[in-house]
Design goal:
Blueprint: H1 9-19, E1 36-46, E2 51-54, H2 60-73, E3 78-81, E4 90-94, E5 106-110, E6 114-119, H3 122-134, E7 143-152, E8 158-164, H4 172-184, E9 189-193, E10 195-196, E11 199-200, H5 209-212, E12 216-217, E13 221-222, E14 231-232, E15 237-238, H6 243-254, E16 259-266, H7 271-276, H8 305-321, E17 326-330, H9 337-341, H10 343-351, H11 357-374, E18 378-382, E19 395-398, H12 403-410, E20 415-417, H13 446-451, H14 461-464, E21 467-472, H15 482-489, H16 492-501, H17 509-526, E22 541-544, E23 547-550, E24 560-564, E25 575-576, E26 581-584, E27 590-598, E28 608-613, E29 630-636, E30 650-656, E31 670-680, E32 684-692, E33 696-700, E34 703-708, E35 715-723, E36 726-736, E37 746-750, E38 757-758, E39 764-765
Helix pairs in contact: 1-17, 2-3, 4-6, 8-11
């Protein structure tokens, strides 16, 4: 069952003090946590009279600080050259005092007399970002900064965040806003995914049809691409960046010490380009159109001389625009059907004495790598570029778990870790699937992101050196708006920044959660859309007991908690929570608590839902059957809730000894109700749970125990019930609206005193 860990009231008081910079929390609220921090006595008072002294007044980091203080704090501080003479009431920005400091590192010292930030290049900028985090959110004519000494530098040299602008397009101004967030949390790489099946987003002057045709799709899929009844919105979608816009974004990023890695996909994910220039395919006689749905497309580049010349021309223009050492060439999810059917490809495989189509892909990547290398650059590819043999100088981005990264490091190739299994796919869910916005699936709350270690223990010390860093990916199949991009990024970006920057020994999730409220308050004040956590202490559960104890605190000061106990959803017109209380649950009844958090800027959290039942243990029912297995009824139809199944026509029925739904998947969309009797050997509290995509409910003796309902991605949820010894009626309602192979139904049961185990249909009787 899904639960949000609670913080005690005394801990909340500590958080409130952190926000007001009045207590000495070890890291002073800074994210990512520094390498070394020592708090000292006294405060520095920043005012209009404070002077900024810099080695170079033209330094972009220096200008960034001066502009920030003017725009955000209305402080017009005079900017002067640093002569090295001691000064009071000054912020000193210098490269002096950086001896022995690691790359991108800085030293920050705040005394009552002055603030000194020592750093070179990016290091000075990151010291400024730390200083900015120490500034209070609310202020008057002066701003007080705590006394502190910090020495800091990153754990990894590559700290990246990706954005897919192909599935849905986002304009240059929003990309700049995205870059601002990355820079604020000391990330140094923006991976810009510019081409894919659903849209070509970069102007290439030699091939104008790439944007004239390839940047526009006629319509977009509604809902999941695995839906058994696909529908489309009928609305054209498109957009691209001119080369002038790209130059402007590159400069903007560089001013914030962000390197942009462009991605030009090949040989797969190339349908938009093929729609513009069909001669890039293995069958130019076909009619192609820009992709309107998601998933893997079978039409890929054909490895002809025309294609290689085309890609070299494209990459020449890309390399002329982007100063990045790395050029990302994709290489992932390349179906081989078109190559297998192509007479040209089969002859080429024989001519080059390649083993198979995987070898042909390796040939393709290696040939493009030689070209990129000839331009003084290096390629990055997704871990599929390992298949058929790795290009000699390639860096591998390991996304299908860590196996690709481990294999590449063992071959002495550089690696960037970005596995979905590590919580680094920010298009995955952050909470209960039935109540989160539509996503591709998966589950990656910030706690999972935070716990990820990019350096696999199976690698030797020498091999670990090839792990350059870590990256999170934000794919936008199900992200059509700027607000949703921010919602999916925040606050997970904060956890990622600590994974990328902070030494492993300094990481502490509990301390991170102490620092998080201040940053949520900053997001709220700055107008960002973000996933607002539920109230601390609010849980989603169905449990048994005689009381419901309610002890809540908001995620940050200023946010308010509203609640209901009548089953209706809470909001600003319902009860305002202002003190702990206890709800007694009379015998034979239940109590239901729903809560929501609303911030000063109007952001709302998900609604929490806790139900406590004080009904007596369910008495056994009369049953004397001995045949193992469950009865089933299959209904055909499109369902959004499991309770809709009862009224649907039955198209099949029988008895099975497994909860496998493989036999029912021939139906475009279906639901199934399983019924039987489960034997309980001892009185006690029993827990049931389901894990599946789409909706499932479990009822024991017609009482709902598990409500893992609605159309959603793979998710695990459960509840508990008191049962007396004997047989009890078991009902499982499940529907599947999507055709995904990931939709495997799992049923779990926890017997008192034993760990959770998977419940077999064979242990139920009919």
């Amino acid at each position: 069952m899904y639960k949000k860990s609670a913080l005690l009231v005394i801990v909340w008081l500590i958080i409130a003090n952190i926000v007001n910079a009045q207590v000495k929390e070890p890291n002073l609220g800074i994210i990512p946590a520094p390498v070394s921090i020592r708090q000292t006595n006294g405060q520095f008072v920043l005012s209009q009279e404070t002077v900024i002294l810099a080695d170079s007044t033209e330094n972009k980091a220096v200008k960034f600080l001066a502009d920030f203080l003017l725009n955000k704090y209305a402080l017009k501080n005079q900017l002067k050259a640093n002569t090295g003479v001691a000064a009071n009431n000054a912020i000193i920005l210098t490269a002096s005092g950086t001896d022995g400091l690691a790359p991108e590192g800085y030293r920050l010292k705040i005394t009552p007399q002055q603030v000194t930030i020592a750093g070179k290049g990016a290091g000075l900028f990151y010291g400024i970002q730390t200083l900015i985090q120490l500034l209070p959110l609310e202020h008057g004519a002066t701003v007080k900064l705590p006394g502190v000494e910090i020495e800091d530098y990153p754990r990894f040299g590559y700290r990246g965040v990706h954005l897919d602008v192909c599935r849905h397009f986002f304009g240059a101004q929003f990309v700049k806003k995205y870059i601002d967030l990355l820079a604020a949390y000391k990330m140094n790489t923006f991976h810009w995914h510019l081409t894919d099946d659903q849209g070509w987003r970069i102007e290439i002057k030699k091939y104008p049809r790439l944007t004239q045709v390839g940047s526009q799709r006629a319509q977009t899929l509604i809902g999941k691409y695995t839906d058994r009844n696909p529908q489309y919105d009928g609305t054209p979608h498109g957009g691209y960046y001119t080369q002038e816009e790209i130059k402007d974004v590159i400069k903007y990023a560089a001013d914030r010490y962000i390197n942009i890695v462009p991605e030009i996909e090949m040989p797969g994910h190339s349908l938009a380009a093929i729609a513009a220039y069909p001669q890039l395919s293995c069958d130019p006689s076909k009619t192609y159109k820009v992709g309107e749905t998601w998933g893997v497309v079978s039409d890929v580049y054909c490895p002809t001389e025309y294609t290689f010349n085309f890609l070299q021309d494209v990459l020449t223009e890309v390399i002329d625009l982007f100063p990045s050492k790395y050029i990302h060439i994709g290489g992932d999810e390349v179906p081989k059907e078109a190559w297998k059917k192509s007479e040209f490809c089969q002859k080429l495989i024989k001519k080059l004495k390649l083993k198979d189509e995987h070898g042909l892909q390796s040939y393709f990547i290696q040939r493009m790598e030689k070209f990129v290398n000839s331009k003084g650059r290096s390629i990055i590819g997704w871990d599929e570029i390992l298949e058929g043999g790795l290009a000699p100088n390639a860096t591998v981005m390991s996304w299908r778990g860590e196996a690709g990264g481990i294999a590449a490091a063992k071959q002495n190739h550089n690696v960037i870790m970005t596995p979905g299994s590590g919580g680094l796919y920010f298009d995955h869910l952050q909470g209960p699937a039935s109540r989160e916005p539509i996503s591709i699936g998966g589950f990656a709350p910030y706690s999972k992101v935070y716990s990820y270690n990019p350096v696999p223990a199976v690698l030797s010390a020498d091999q670990q050196k090839y792990i350059l860093g870590v990256q999170a990916n934000l794919w936008t199949e199900y992200i059509a708006t700027e607000d949703k991009v921010e919602y999916m990024l925040l606050p997970r970006l904060f956890a990622l920044s600590e994974v990328a920057w902070t030494p492993l020994a300094n990481k502490d999730l509990n301390n991170f959660e102490l620092r998080l409220p201040r940053h949520l308050a900053w997001l709220d004040k700055a107008g960002y859309t973000y996933r607002l956590p539920k109230a601390n202490g609010a849980i989603d559960t169905m449990t048994v007991g005689t009381q419901l104890n309610v002890n809540l605190t908001p995620p940050f000061p200023g946010a308010k908690i509203y609640y209901t106990i009548d089953g209706f959803d809470p909001g600003e017109t319902t009860l305002l929570y202002d003190h702990p209380f206890t709800l007694d649950v009379p015998e034979g009844q239940f109590r239901e608590l729903k809560t929501v958090v609303i911030t000063p800027a109007g952001h709302t959290s998900l609604v929490s839902h806790a139900m406590v039942s004080n009904k007596p243990a369910l008495a056994p029912v009369s049953f004397d059957g001995t045949t193992p297995g469950v009865k089933y009824k299959v209904m055909s139809g499109i369902f959004t809730e499991a309770n809709q199944l009862e009224a649907a026509p039955v198209i099949d029925s029988g008895v099975v000894k497994t909860f496998s739904t493989a036999a029912f998947k021939k139906n475009k969309a279906y639901g199934v109700i399983y019924t039987g009797y489960i034997r309980i050997d001892n009185d006690g509290k029993y827990l049931f749970a389901t894990k599946q995509g789409d909706g499932a409910n479990i009822l024991i003796d017609d009482q709902t125990v598990v409500l893992n309902d609605a159309k959603h991605g793979l998710y695990h949820d459960g509840g508990e019930v008191l049962l007396q010894k004997g047989y009890h009626k078991f009902t499982l309602k499940y529907f599947e609206a999507t055709a995904s192979n990931n939709n495997v139904l799992h049923i779990y049961m926890t017997i008192p005193g034993k760990p959770q185990g998977e419940l077999s249909a064979e242990s139920i009787y009919n």
